[in-house]
Amino acid sequence: MKLNASQFVEISYTTGEHLASYASKFHPLKDEAYWGHYNGPRIVCDEGKRRGKGSMEYRLQPGPVNPEVLTQQETHRSKAIWDGDDKGSLRCLKFNVDFITALVERWRPETHTFHLTVGEATVTLQDVQVLLGLRIRGDVVTGTSACNWRALIYELLGRTPGEEDLKGASLRIGWLTEHFSGLPEQANEQVLHQYVRAYLLILMATVMFPDKSGNDIQVVYLPLLRDLDAIDDFSWGSAVLATLYRNLCRSSNMKARDIGGPLILLQLWAWERITIARPIVTGPENPPLIQGPYPLGSQHQLRVDSLGRRWLSVHRRRPQGTTITTLLGYRDALDNMRPDQFVWQPYPQAIFSFLPEACYNDSGEWCVVSPMICFDIVEWHLPNRVARQFGWKQNIPEPADTEPKLHKMDKRGAHSRNWAEYHSAYLAMWFRRYQFRFIGVEDNSDMGYNDPYMVWYRDRTRRFISPTFQQAYQAPLGATAYLAHGFAEVHRTCNTEIQAMPQEVPPHYRNIMSNIRDNTSQSLEHVGYSHLLQQFHQPTQETQVEEQHEERGDGSTMQESTAEDDETLQVFRRRSRRTNTSMSPINEQGTPEPSKAKKIWSRLRGKKKT
């Protein structure tokens, strides 16, 4: 007799029921070109950790798989971080130091680009001119280091600095501000020119060429200010960009502890292009009638100010829900950057109608492949590696040679060197830069995951900075993240209230706030979001207050709160209403009533209600 096995199988486990339940809901995409963007870890076999047949460990490969591009990886900051030698944030002046450090960790001196998950990107001559309004076309900013600087300062500024104010070619900025803070009345033309030169030196020291300390300015720029009518003949934009490149290259080394240079340009560039934790620009109440949103700030002078002035603190505000405020947060956010979080072309053609001509009249210079020079500094401008920033198709770039030996050159030990003669070969390349303009093929479409460039790039880039065991921030995923952020806000509010609570407040109210704070902290730790509390200062040791319900030493119990306590209680109630903290109701005797959940919990544990 032949048995029919199907009669012994429940209907819910039959093949037909299985297909009816799942087959209609699963439609695989066989073509990888239509797959969503994958930004997960690259799992590779580590042959050195093979245990035996049939058993193998895997490790996360941060890259590069192919080392032909990132030849300086062994001395780069990213290697030290991955190996557990994280020195933290760089020291810099007046900027978002954590965000700047996270960007430096992705800067590659081999290519003069940031290696992001979406591809290579960099600050170009276009960004310098549009954001700062600095000229690109012109002579090289260079000269000699051999000069009697004290005599030159007296000739061009009309004053002689003291011994403590001038050391070598470094002039103290405080000396300039002390003697040139206000133009005297009835100043003649000579005095006016002296004050203009002093103002330009201060501008160079604080915006264009600041050093790491922020206290000095190199007076090697002063001879270029002798003829004020000829100032516009120099390529100040290329000199500023070369200075930024040099500081980024040096600070990307694992031994670097600080960074200088025109970081204002880097900060503005990042706000224009990277949407992660980007502030919101507040426009005027009555903007001009235009198509689309008004791009400038509330106090922006139309056709006078450069585009970078729209990011002044008076114009911007912090977006709601922003929780990235630490280096680990920015680092991991860049590790998990999505394609829609980088703006390849933030300067549409229509925006130039709001800007002065000085912000775009050298557009023919924006795509030159050329060395940029500023006295001892020589750095290569390579727009061919970031073609998408100009609206062109990005192909696999040719091998880059940024000449690492140039990064080691500076003014130390070269006090009598004529830099124009020393870099004469690079000056000749600058004057022939039009012969090496990069012109691509227009393509504004989104680059696919399997585009030839991205396939080539992923094998040659450093994909991850933070090791998985150090990751302190993950992109928000659904309700868990939103609840975690809410718990972090409750924790912050409780912590603030505890620290500001006057001593007259009954102790059990302090304990209530402490319990709420501790419970939210434990909850965040359980779900893996304890990193949200790193930005909040917590006391290392919290003084615990005894309950007033305890017996006194003589056997009596503590009486009800005094009139003074009742008055303090009313003040505390009003303060509690202004917070987002949910508290148990207060009864007429001034003691908190246990919530329903607490009553049930007490009964389950067999405890008597107090």
Provide a short characterization of the protein structure.
The chain has 610 residues and is an alpha+beta fold.
Shape: globular
Strand proportion, as a percent range, falls in 5-15%
Order of helices and strands: HEEHHEEEHHEEHHEHHEEHEEHHHHHHH
Structural class: alpha+beta
Rg measurement, Å: 32 Å
What is the number of strand segments? 12
Q: How would you portray this structure in words?
A:
- This protein is of the alpha+beta class and 610 residues long.
- Helices cover 31% and strands 8% of the residues.
- It contains 17 helices and twelve strands.
- A three-stranded antiparallel beta sheet has the order 3-4-5.
- The radius of gyration is 32 Å and the shape is globular.
Features:
610 residues; alpha+beta; three-stranded antiparallel beta sheet; 17 helices; 31% helix
Summarize the topology.
Elements (H helix, E strand, L loop, with lengths): L14 H8 L20 E10 L2 E6 L16 H6 L14 H8 L2 E2 L4 E4 L2 E3 L3 H8 L16 H9 L8 E2 L2 E3 H7 L9 H20 L7 E3 L17 H16 L11 H11 L6 E2 L34 E2 L9 H9 L34 E5 L2 E5 L37 H4 L1 H8 L20 H7 L19 H23 L6 H20 L36 H15 L18 H9 L6
Antiparallel strand pairs: 1-2, 3-4, 4-5, 6-7, 7-8, 9-10, 11-12
Helix pairs in contact: 3-10, 4-8, 14-15
